[in-house]
Amino acid sequence: MSAAARIVLSVAAIVVVALVAGLWIIRGPGPLAFADGPKIALADYHGASPTGVPASLAQASLVERGAYLAKAADCEACHTAAGGKSYTGGVGFKLPFGTLYSTNITPDRETGIGNYSDQDFLNAVHRGIRHDGARLYPAMPFASYTTMSDDDALAIKAYLFSLPPVHAPAPANTLTFPFNQRWAMMFWSALFNRDSRFEPDISKSPEWNRGAYLAEALAHCGECHTPRNLAFALDNRQKFAGAVTAGWRAFNITSDKATGVGAWRDDDLIAYLSSGHAAGHGTASGPMAEAVDHSFSQMASEDIRAIVAYLRSVPPVTSTDLPATLAPPAPASHKDGGAPNARGKMVFEGACVSCHGWTGESPVSPVATLTGALAVNDPAATNVAQIVISGTRRNTAADALSMPAFGNAYSDDEIAAVANYVTARFGAKGSKLTAQDVAELRKQVSQ
Amino acid sequence: MATTLTINGEQRSFDAPADMPLLWVLRDILGMTGTKFGCGIAQCGACTVHIDGKPVRSCVLPVGAVRDRAVTTIEGVGSTPTGAKIQKAWLDLEVIQCGYCQSGQIMSATALLAATPHADDSDIDAAMAGNICRCGTYVRIRAAIKQAASGRQA
Amino acid sequence: MIIMEKKSDTVSRRTLLAGGLAGGFLLAFHLPAHAANEPVQPPDVTEGKFAPNAFIRIDEAGQTTLVMPQVEMGQGVYTAVAMILAEELDANFAQVMLEHAPPNDKLYGNPVFGLQVTGNSNSIRAWWEHLRNAGAVARAMLVQAAAQQWQVDPPSCTTANGEVIHKESGRKLAYGALAASASGQTPPKDVALKDPKDFVLIGQPLKRLDTPDKANGKAVYGIDAILPDMKFATVAACPVFGGKVGKVDDSAARKIPGVRKIVVLDDMVAVVGDHMWAAKKGLGALVIDWDEGPNARLSSKDIWQDLRAASEKDGVVAKSEGDIAKGLATGERLDASYELPFLAHAPMEPINATVRLKSDSCEIWTGTQVLTRVQSEAAKAAGLPVEKVTVNNHLLGGGFGRKLEPDMAVAAVRIAKQVDGPVKVVWTREEDIQHDVYRPVYRDTIAATLSDGKIVGWKYKVAGSAILARWLPPAFQKGIDIDAVDSAVDMPYDIPNFHVEYVRAEPPAVPTGFWRGVGPNNNVFAIESFMDELARKAGKDPVEFRRGMLGKNPRLLAALNLVAEKSGWGQPLAARVGRGVSIQPSFGSFIATVVEAEVDEQGEVHLHHVTSAVDTGIAVNPDTIMAQLEGGLIFGLTAALYGEITIDKGRVQQSNFHDYRMLRIDQTPKIEVHVIKSGEAPGGIGETGVTAGPPALRNAIYAATGVALRRLPIDRSLIAGKKA
Q1: Which of C133, C326, C406, C421 has the most CB within a 10 Å radius?
Q2: Are A414 and C604 inside 8 Å of each other by CB?
Q3: Which CA distances in Å does C286 have to A81, B18, C247, C270?
């Protein structure tokens, strides 16, 4: 071997090592890597099973168990378009390079999953591989669902197959090149989808393991709450530290006391998850409201408690852009408090104050109280603007307390102004949104 | 759910679901139709009543949330000095046209003056912008509040 | 003030608070009042009562009752009609009582329509002579009766404040004492009317008769009807125009406490409950599969495309003077098209009707602008003869043209067929906005030529729905909708070559109807907007330009001059602030309006000041004239700034006040109205402000930004960052 060849080879070796190391670094730790106790295969675990359904459903039929798990996995939120029939897809996910549509997962043979065998279904849920062999985009959270047990995934399939088939072709995606090349997702999956089932941590309690399974394999919290890396995969070094997804901010749900949920009482977390509201902490809106309506509010109370136990163990990460202390109620007089902002005040006094009050403490319902909500304390005002644009339509009994969507009749400038007014009046630090920012936020929302 | 409320100083007992907005309790159960339904989403103010003297949109206020607080409606507001003053100013300046929103306007204006006897233009904006009037009586509403605030005659 | 409540067969009176007694007037409504409001009887003519015509009743106790042929929806007509009747009758105005007329076209048909209709700003115009005559005839009969009793010559008697007076002998008789003998008198064929200089009521800013009860919650609107054992219902019609109900899954709705019945009709579903909340919750819990039908893909984009194509076609000639070909070939030519959107009415009182249907009768409680039409359409729906249908009209919580349609009563009757006992059907605001009968989209195309700073040729084409063809077919003649071209065929300007065409273009599936301001709304906007563009082309001040062409219209010229003076026209303004003018001879009133507005960097419009000068002929109640203009201006400016109903997938996209916006008090400009003294017959006033506001605002924006907007509502993106 010539010297030149040796040099070329050693350079190549260095490049390969560097590349692998680089990819390894980009890939980062897995979602449960923070829990450093010994992990074992599910089959070898002797504690109460972290998978499956709660005790009350232990004797239920496969379809009933599947229904519970489908709710826990919140399939419906992404697979049901506004005003559309359940599970028929058609929700558009707006990405910088086009729109991606969710598909029909009713058992329609032509447009749904009616032709899927059990293995086809597992391939889709665990590996992101479609019935026809094509690759799914990771908008489908298969990298989270991959931790789901085969039994649970197939129970969900049984439930979906019990639904009436609906003929509903998905709208064609509008992704641009190269993002329209599905085959390229093969490399993404190879790198970022671990394709492995849940492994209990024997150093933790059965409740923690159940919570971990629910949060990771089913509820897929990280898909919104964990920041993503350049390759659009979850960066678990910042696990649950908060991220902006589809134009909405999913807040820090680590155990950080100041900017996460570390200071929330268990009861607050339980109330928030199961009803979408916790006194003094605001009300779920946007995608989290959907998650509560479709998923958490339908879950057994012991499962909610398990998720809370698990959340408590997630290492704290501080969100440096959030205030350490939330703002107290604003002054009772419209003349005091906030920052001068004539347009924002005008929108607020006409359309908002009747429900939210000048203090931020609602005269009609705690659900409409702004004081203490992270959204109004976020100086980026992302969720405030989004809530103004699209409102909150809760699927709960309290439908008198929905907030209407102002986005169709109020200009970007008015929405920016009122968001700035609201964050300055009710939050720790006022936002500086512009009409352009609002226009951008509108573009990012899935619908 | 059996409920007792104090409305215009009287105890009223009735049976209603706790999530039922006060508006419908007043109108459909108690027959007090002075309080009006306009939008059902707290955007127009036609349903405004007072809860412990503060203006509240009864179309979104669950009756179960009222508890022991005093409810005042348009039927009773005239027996408060401020309410009577506002009603008089409304008629002196001939504010009213179709009148459908005016129960709410008068309730909002009364609460404003009760809390801020010398209301200025920005106070009027802050207190009244949530009340829509389709007939467009806003110019006279502002003038009437100012008249009532100043005590001067038309 | 006294109000009369009819509780079953007993009539009770109660005195109201002194606080509501601003003017000390004594008046009453035979309103179907609260709790067991039984039907109002037709005006009775029992013995001893003087009932010379359909409008006046005087009983032996002297109580004078005036029956209102037009409905009260805020425009102050009850007070004005009462003033006219009382003026010629010389009644004691402080003691008249008012009564809603029952449905009866023969007695109460609007002289212009031949139907019992309140609309087109014509209550006073249409009834002026009739009501004066009715009052004068009654007065003459009372005088005859007194003269007979006193054995004197009738001309030697005078009348005042409800009494006949014989000055020479110092004798007096109250009308009540004459009621019986006056009924025996023959009504005179010709009767002298008062000289306007002798008017004691007309022309005075009298306090309104309907407002005290509106300030204390006692006024009863249709939505306030309460009957024993009444149920409450709310409806959902297919969201797609023309669609039908497919399948309804009511399993969840039935479980809601208070839900009593689910009524499934072919095009709508109603939930009946113990109260509106149960009905509303029940409706929300229904899972309805709609059969959306052929309009499921209809969109605003298609509708506008169709209308633009239609407006390119030749229309039916509505008016032509001079030689338009020659006119358009002379001087400098300017072309423009103006477009106006669909609009919902959104009266504050949501759509409602209460029905008690029995095998042989149907009673309806509602507030309508078309009483007899409600009666006849309800009869059809109920399958009963018209005379078996009673309609109890109420005060209207706004009409604006929405209640010129009987659909709400028909729907309520159809629902009532499946309900035992009375049912009140109230639409949610969402249903009201999404199932209105909309002000149609219009497109107006104008070509004009200028020579020596004056218009020499004017070709104007309206393209839009023919509402009259549906609403009053006999009035739709030779392919021309006289409403659609109103104010276009009778422009105020001196133009030698003048040509107006109309293209009937019906939007597919979207029902269209009258909206406050009707035809002139569209035409005044296009004409007055274009006038400013022409003025600019001619290098003239907009007021000056108009003045030069008002030779044949001195009343409008006087209004223009007055408004220019009062508005400070021509005085310097800050940057981004503009003044705009518009003038109109519509509805028989001559109005000039100046709007001063600011357009900020972001394109938001701030209304500073509006000044109007109006010659509306004899102003029956000048304060009402001012109130109507103030309110009308706000109504029109609201539409100019925000009003647009859009269609997507065959359904209306707006639903409530959060996305169908209304001007609020903090956005309202200062408004100044100047009423010009006039001896001419009264003109209409209820709609004039609505048509005056938008073009004046548009022209103010034109002055402030240099942007010639040609479409409503105002598109902020076109004027953001612009400065004249």
Answers
A1: C406
A2: yes
A3: 18, 21, 10, 10
Least confident of A20-34, C318-332, C437-451: A20-34
At C714 the pLDDT is: 98
- In this structure, chain C runs to a length of 724
Comparing B107-121, C40-54, C142-156, C481-495, the range with the smallest average pLDDT is C40-54
Range of the domain at A430: 342-444
- Read off the pLDDT of each residue in C149-165 and give the average, rounded to a whole number: 97
User: Tell me, what's the ipTM?
Assistant: 0.98
Among A354, A358, A396, the residue to mutate for chain B (most B Cβ within 10 A): A354
pLDDT for the residue C5: 32
Rounded Cα distance between A211 and A313, Å, is 10
Q: Which pLDDT band, with edges at 50, 70 and 90, does C492 fall under?
A: very high
- For chain C, domains (ranges, CATH) are 2-214 (3.30.365.10), 222-293+351-426 (3.30.365.10), 301-342+438-719 (3.30.365.10)
Whether residue A287 is found in the same domain as residue A359:
no
Judged by DSSP in three states, B123 sits in helix
For chain A, what is the domain count? 3
DSSP, residue by residue, C590-612: EEEEEEEEEE-TT--EEEEEEEE
What chain C residue is nearest to B125 in terms of C-alpha separation? C666
Of C276, C273, C222, residue with least CA distance to C100: C222
One domain for residues A257 and A144: no
Q: Which of A212, A184, A186 is nearest to A198 (CA)?
A: A212
Amino acid identity for residue A7 in this structure: I
Q: Interface of chain B against chain A, CB under 8 Å?
A: 19, 21, 40-43, 45, 51, 54, 56-57, 59-62, 65, 122-123, 125-126, 129-130
Domains of chain B, CATH where assigned:
2-76 (3.10.20.30), 77-150 (1.10.150.120)
Domain boundary among A294, A312, A330: A312
Task: Report the pLDDT value the prediction gives residue C42, as an integer from 0 to 100.
Answer: 40
Do A142 and A59 have their domain in common? yes
Tell me: do A271 and A398 sit in the same domain: no
User: Is the link from the previous residue into A178 a cis peptide, with omega within 30 of 0?
Assistant: yes
pLDDT exceeds cutoff 60 at C50: yes
The CATH number that applies at residue A353 is 1.10.760.10
Predicted confidence at residue C345, as pLDDT, reads 98
Give the best residue of A345, A408, A410, A438 to mutate against chain C (max C CB count within 10 A): A408
